[in-house]
Every structure is written in structure tokens, then in C-alpha cells.
UniProtKB/TrEMBL annotation:
Protein name as it appears in the record: Amino acid efflux permease RhtB family protein
TM segment ranges: 41-62, 74-95, 115-136, 148-171, 183-201
Location(s) in or outside the cell: Cell membrane
Cited InterPro entries: LeuE-type (IPR001123)
Membrane topology label: Multi-pass membrane protein
GO MF term list: amino acid transmembrane transporter activity
One GO CC annotation: plasma membrane
Pfam family, one: LysE
Key words of the record: Cell membrane, Membrane, Transmembrane, Transmembrane helix
Length: 202
């Protein structure tokens, strides 16, 4: 995989991981309620759920591209519409939303369960991956290249939420995010809309 293509993939994965939403609220809640270990466990199991969806998407899309080009176009268009909807929603979110998390005392097992369920139980996540990874997957890709795509998504997602958990354990990140929530939402919305246009333009 060319370095420039991987950098584009990494940037989009980072954009998705860093955008405010239910996943961020989950890590915030477990970190505030259970401390650093609880937040890290939630972050790691969430990344495992992301990796599962990324794996399914990477291997499934190759067959769709090769044998069902019309179905692939429909999936791509649906993904573009979903990304545009997410972008508009982010632009309209303002400073409120998922960043206002409340502390909750929980065990590590519950933190692990919640991290996995939030990732696997969110249908929006798989739609995001279909729209995202369809731009990077080709039928002739090697196993190594497909693995790089999956690992990139997992490492960036787990890395970001682990940093959030580590920072919150020192009570520094949460006020910073809350103070800038409106700008984070605006930047995320613009990037998602731009990606939707890119998908539609092929």
C-alpha cells in the first residue's frame, strides 16, 4: 500500500475516532467512574469491536467489488448519504451532546462489556466502515494490505480512546474537550461532508 494512501486512511480513521459521540461518552463515563484502568479497558474492547467490523468490511467488500459491481455502487452511494447525514448532524450539534458525561462506578468486567457492546451494537459503525473502507479496498489487494487496513483502524481507535482515558485520569482532558466541543463538531461535520462528496465523485 502506498504511503500516501495509508496516510489518507489513517487521517480518516483518526477523524472518525476523535469525533464526539456515544463511544467517547462511554470512555468518559467509565474513566470518571472507575478510574484509569476502567477507561482503558473500555477503550481497548471498543477497539476490538471496531476491528471486527473492519475485518468483515475489508474481506466482504473485495468479493462485492469483483462479482457484484452494481451492488457495490449502491453500497457506496448509501454510505455517501450516511456520511453526509453524519456531517450535517455534527454541524448542527453545537457545544452539547455526548461530551456531557456523568461518572458511574463500575467494575472492569462491566467496562469491557460496555466497550464491546457500544462498538458491536451500533449499526452506524458498520455503515461508516462500509463507506470508509470501500475507498481503499480493491480485489487485487494482498492479505498483508488488508491486514494493514484493519490494524490501522484498531490501533487508531484504541490509541485515541486510551489517550482520553489516561488524560481524564488526571482531570485535564474533559474540560478541554467540553470547552471546544462546538469547534470539534464543526470540523468533523465539514470533513464528513467532504468525504461524502469524494465518495459520490468516485
Amino acid at each position: 500500500m502506498p504511503l500516501s494512501l495509508w496516510l489518507s486512511l489513517a487521517a480518516i480513521c483518526a477523524m472518525g475516532a476523535m469525533s464526539p459521540g456515544p463511544s467517547l461518552a462511554l470512555v468518559l463515563r467509565h474513566t470518571l467512574g472507575g478510574g484509569r484502568a476502567s477507561g482503558l479497558v473500555a477503550a481497548i474492547t471498543h477497539a476490538m469491536g471496531v476491528g471486527f467490523y473492519a475485518l468483515l468490511t475489508v474481506w466482504g467488500l473485495g468479493a462485492v467489488i469483483e462479482h457484484h459491481p452494481t451492488a457495490f455502487r449502491l453500497i457506496t452511494w448509501a454510505g455517501a448519504a450516511y456520511l453526509a447525514w453524519l456531517g450535517i448532524k455534527a454541524l448542527r450539534a453545537g457545544a452539547g451532546g455526548a461530551l456531557q458525561a456523568q461518572g458511574q462506578s463500575v467494575s472492569l468486567v462491566i467496562a469491557a462489556r460496555d466497550g464491546l457492546i457500544v462498538a458491536l451494537g451500533n449499526p452506524k459503525l458498520i455503515l461508516f466502515f462500509v463507506a470508509l473502507l470501500s475507498q481503499f479496498v480493491t480485489p487485487e489487494m494482498t492479505t498483508l494490505e488488508r491486514s494493514i487496513i484493519v490494524l490501522t483502524a484498531v490501533v487508531i481507535d484504541g490509541g485515541w480512546y486510551s489517550l482520553v482515558a489516561l488524560g481524564l485520569s488526571h482531570s485535564r482532558v474533559l474540560p478541554w474537550l467540553q470547552a471546544r466541543a462546538q469547534w470539534i463538531n464543526r470540523i468533523t461535520g465539514v470533513l464528513l461532508l467532504a468525504l461524502a462528496v469524494r465518495v459520490l465523485m468516485g
